[in-house]
Amino acid sequence: MPATATPAAIGANELPIIDFARLDDGEAGEAAIARELDETFSRIGFCYFRNIGVPDALVRGLFDASRRFHALPDAAKRALAMNDAHRGYMAPNTSLIVTSSVAQVKRPNYSESLMIMHEVDPADPRFGQPLHGLNQWPDLPGFREAVQAYEAAMRAFCMRLLRPLARALRLDPDWFLPHFDFPTTFLRLLHYPPQPPESPDDAFGSAPHTDYGFITILCQDNAGGLEVRRKDGTWLKAPPVPGTWVVNVADMLSRWTNGRWQSTPHRVKNLSGGDRFSCPYFFDMSMDSTVECVPTCTGPGNPPRHAPVRYGDYLMERLDKNYQYRHRTT
């Protein structure tokens, strides 16, 4: 893929790259990025971001932490099994995406991960409410510091991203801010073991699905395996591009825009012959935020397609259906 690809210059088999270096250029830079976001998210809902202000050293530190965690003995990882606050270790074959709107998924995902979420202090009045709890940290030197440094940088960028996203929808630049007074965030350290070439067609590291929330920003290694489904139903590879993150619209942002921006299906099948590591960052609105069609995405002949929904209710329904650990009886 050309490293200079833009929404106006991409081919049918390429995802665009949006350069956020212009975000420092004031109103003109923010407006230019807003136009590219709208064009890209309306057309396919997936792209690459570059120059988002997250130093390479933080990325290297994050992947080093992930590899060290996944190299631990199985017993050490399972000691951090997912807790009721959705934080901890997910073993292979324990996530089955039954809520997928794009495929009838019959096999659990062939991957393992450590889920890190927004940290909630026990003194916080929200502590103990759904998804408001403490993370589980492995006993690895420097692990927590590396993960928290990356998460803080990603959160800072995502908060800056809210302004051009609002402008892309012809909203006041600060329109999204009240919905993110306490963002719901997930940083998932994923490991995909190699799948045999003779694997069944319906065996995936991550089965076809859309993401639940607002926006996903993925950092991946060089193994490849991520694919995006186009409107015509064909699958487009999203190969690693140095210095970029893969970005996609998720269900709630698509819902806010009345479908103007697509929550695009995607999947992972690791046929590289080696291990694959990726670190998606899911940046979502506050649990109490109500998502309903924004005023610029509806009008005569284009009524809202969905009733208003509280994000926390929508999210918990999907977690309860898709993750085995939430079905424990003891």
Describe what this molecule looks like in 3D.
- This protein has 330 residues and is of the alpha+beta class.
- It has one domain (17-327): Jelly Rolls (Sandwich).
- Helices cover 25% and strands 20% of the residues.
- It is built from six helices and 14 strands.
- Strands 1-2-10-7-12-5-4-3 form an eight-stranded mixed beta sheet. A four-stranded antiparallel beta sheet has the order 6-11-8-9, with no helix packed on it.
- Strand 1 (17-19), helix 1 (26-43) and strand 2 form a beta-alpha-beta unit.
- Helix 1 crosses helix 4 (143-168) and helix 2 packs across helix 4.
- The longest helix has 26 residues, at 143-168.
- It is globular and about 55 Å long.
- Residues 1-12 have low confidence and may be disordered.
- Pathway: Alkene biosynthesis; ethylene biosynthesis via 2-oxoglutarate.
- Residues 183-285 form the Fe2OG dioxygenase domain.
Offer a few descriptive terms:
330 residues, alpha+beta, Jelly Rolls, 8-stranded mixed sheet, 6 helices
CATH C-level: Mainly Beta
Number of helices: 6
- Strand composition percent: 15-25%
* CATH domain fold name: Jelly Rolls
Number of strands: 14
Quick one: biggest sheet?
Answer: 8 strands, mixed
Pathway: Alkene biosynthesis; ethylene biosynthesis via 2-oxoglutarate
Organism: Limobrevibacterium gyesilva
Enzyme class: oxidoreductase
Cofactor: Fe(2+)
